[in-house]
Design a protein that fits this description.
mainly alpha; Flavocytochrome C3, Chain A, domain 2; 2 domains; two-stranded antiparallel ribbon; 2 strands; 46% helix; extended; binds heme C; Multihaem_cyt_sf; Cyt_c-552/4; Cytochrome c-552/4 domain-containing protein
Length: 216
């Protein structure tokens, strides 16, 4: 009798343990299945850096956007945070870190500040300051020529469905004023102050950075 009871307990134990394992296995495979069916776009786009855009946006005949941008203050926005003026401003605001390390400053002086490492491609350089992707959105999902062309077509037709899907912004007044050209900016619930705010008139300020395609 004694033996019979402990044997059946033993069997029960094995059955229980293996179902727990099987359940774990089942959940694992279900997870894999769900992940594999998730649309590719659900992945947040990576910041690929201005050099990636340069590949197709450097020639004169398309409007040499890369060269023009390189010559603007935007390309020097990170460097600027190393200036005496920047250091003095940060000190005044009670920020202990160097401005080139402080999120309070980087948030408007580089692209993607505060995002996890996984969102940056190898080519991305924070030293490039305010770059293409600050304004046009992280390029990881839209940088392919085929997609760019589709986005261009959609823009010309007045739509924005694909642009939303790929995280692409073709650029407008809202691009500037909803991000850096405002007195305060809130990102993920944290409010940052712009210590150098100047009234922003889009039409006027756009003249400083205009980079249009001459053939359109
Ligand atoms: C493989 C080539 C290629 C790369 C890389 C590329 N583009 Fe483009 N892009 C194009 C083409 C082609 C067009 C459509 C025609 C044109 O404007 O020259 C275009 C158009 C655009 C437009 C205008 C779309 C509209 O609304 O008409 C913007 C803005 C733009 N690209 C930004 C970027 C940014 C930012 C990057 C880097 C993250 C980038 N592109 C990388 C090829 C590329
Ligand atoms: C909300 C966005 C934002 C934040 C946050 C921000 N900046 Fe700026 N900063 C700007 C913009 C936009 C300009 C350009 C001003 C203009 O021309 O309208 C600028 C310009 C500057 C300038 C040059 C203008 C001047 O007065 O000489 C310095 C220096 C500067 N920022 C330092 C800092 C420092 C230091 C921090 C962090 C403590 C910081 N910024 C945080 C948006 C911001
Ligand atoms: C500070 C914001 C900003 C930066 C940085 C920026 N752009 Fe733009 N871009 C805009 C805005 C706004 C527009 C639309 C308004 C316009 O063209 O007059 C635009 C338009 C464009 C267009 C369409 C031009 C046309 O003729 O329709 C292309 C292509 C483009 N950008 C590519 C780039 C590339 C490539 C870079 C980086 C090398 C870049 N942009 C950097 C804000 C920016």
């Amino acid at each position: 009798m004694e033996h019979g009871v402990s044997f059946s307990r033993f069997v029960w134990k094995i059955i229980l343990e293996s179902t727990v394992k099987l359940k774990g296995l089942f959940v694992f495979f279900l997870g894999c299945f769900l992940l594999s069916t998730m649309p590719a776009m659900a992945k947040e786009a990576q910041f690929v850096g201005a050099k990636t855009c340069k590949k197709c946006h450097k020639k004169k005949k398309v409007g040499e956007q890369y060269k023009i941008w390189k010559g603007t203050k935007h390309a020097k926005a990170y460097e600027l945070l190393g200036s005496k003026k920047a250091l003095a401003k940060a000190k005044e605001m009670g920020i202990k870190q160097h401005p080139q390390k402080a999120i309070e400053c980087l948030i408007c002086h580089t692209a993607g500040a505060g995002e996890p490492k996984s969102r940056f491609a190898k080519k991305f350089k924070k030293e490039d300051g305010v770059q293409c992707e600050n304004c046009h959105g992280a390029g990881g999902n839209y940088k392919k020529k085929k997609i760019m062309k589709k986005l261009h077509k959609e823009k010309a037709a007045g739509g924005n469905k694909l642009a939303t899907k790929y995280g692409f912004d073709s650029g407008s007044e809202n691009t500037c004023t909803s991000q850096c050209h405002q007195e305060q900016r809130t990102v993920n619930g944290v409010t940052y102050t712009n210590p150098s705010y100047k009234d922003f008139v889009y039409k006027e300020r756009m003249k400083e950075i205009v980079h249009r395609n001459p053939h359109k």
